[in-house]
Specification:
This protein has about 150 residues and is mainly alpha-helical. Helix content is about 65%, strand content about 5%. The protein folds into two domains: about 5-70, no CATH class; about 80-145. The chain has helices at about 25-35, 45-70, 75, 90-120, 130, 135-145; strands spanning about 5, 15. Strands 1-2 form a two-stranded antiparallel sheet. Helix 1 (about 25-35) packs antiparallel against helix 2. The longest helix is centred in the C-terminal third of the chain and has 35 residues, at about 90-120.
Length: about 150
């Protein structure tokens, strides 16, 4: 091994003559241009600068994509049969929409129960307000939806 250097991405000691492949191709090409390794390219400085800029821009997208996949791996591991073949973003949107709907229904049932509580105690018989407003049925339906059970 010739002169050793530390890889700035993974920290491994690597041969300086044969750069470590942990660095993405886009960055290796940009660095090669910086170091003058592509001097025989028939392009002017503006073209090379444009290529470097584009390679670095593409690398930022590559990094964002890697982070997205790392942070959404749990979606892949918890996939439901109805979600097979769907994009992770679509699965996330569907799950969020479902949770918002369930939350709205549970909140409505809770508000109805609270607003009926005092009325129930003052009515004769006491259960009339609870039954008339359908509090129990709505609460049970909301709970069933939230837990995935039949009402």
């Amino acid at each position: 091994m010739n002169e050793a250097m530390k890889c700035d991405r993974c920290g491994k000691m690597v041969d300086a003559v044969y750069p470590h492949t942990c660095t993405p191709l886009a960055l290796r090409l940009a660095d090669a241009i910086d170091l003058g390794w592509l001097e025989n390219v028939d392009s002017d400085k503006a073209d090379i600068d444009m290529i470097q800029t584009e390679l670095r821009r593409l690398h930022q997208h590559e990094l964002a994509n890697e982070v997205w996949h790392e942070k959404t791996e749990w979606v892949q591991q918890t996939v439901q049969p109805s979600e097979l073949g769907m994009h992770r973003a679509d699965v996330l949107r569907q799950r969020i929409d479902y949770l918002h709907a369930v939350n709205e229904e549970l909140l409505g049932a809770l508000q109805l129960a609270l607003s009926s509580h005092g009325v129930m105690l003052l009515s004769d018989p006491p259960q009339d307000a609870w039954k008339t407003r359908g509090v129990e049925a709505k609460a049970r339906a909301a709970i069933a939806k939230a837990t995935g059970e039949q009402a």
